Amino acid sequence: MSSAVLSFITITALSAIIGVLLSRNKNARQRLLMDAGLEKEVHAMLEQSQDKIAAVKLVRRKTGAGLLEAKQFVNRVKENKGPFS
Predict the structure, then answer these.
(1) Secondary structure letter of residue 69 according to DSSP
(2) How far is residue 18's CA from residue 46's CA, in Å, rounded to a whole number?
(3) Helices H / strands E in the chain, number of each
(4) How distant is the alpha carbon of residue 57 from its chain centre?
């Protein structure tokens, strides 16, 4: 086989592996966000100070979630809809 074909196969395989690893990481964060303890902690935090920014930082620190994902979680808790209602 030529080096171009080998390079193509290698890049394709690495892309597939990276995709699988990223997907697993997202699923792990999703499970962490569904943790009732985290939901209660965020709810208590919001009741005490109404500081959404601190709550978003807490969720990001504990779960590794992105900014948008953490903000959506906090907003749902604040609206008393649960994290994934």
Answers:
(1) H
(2) 37
(3) 4, 0
(4) 12
CA 31, CA 54: separation in Å to the nearest integer?
21
Higher per-residue pLDDT: 33 or 83: 33
Q: Quick one: three-class SS letters along 22-50?
A: HHHHHHHHHHHHCCHHHHHHHHHHHHHHC
For the record, the structure tokens of 69 come out as 């994902």
Which residue in the block uniquely carries the two structure tokens 């499970």?
31
Chain mean position to CA 16: 21
Distance, CA of 73 to chain centre: 10
Q: How far is 54 from 41, CA to CA, in rounded Å?
A: 12
pLDDT in tens, 17-60: 777 666 655 665 666 666 768 888 898 899 888 789 999 999 99
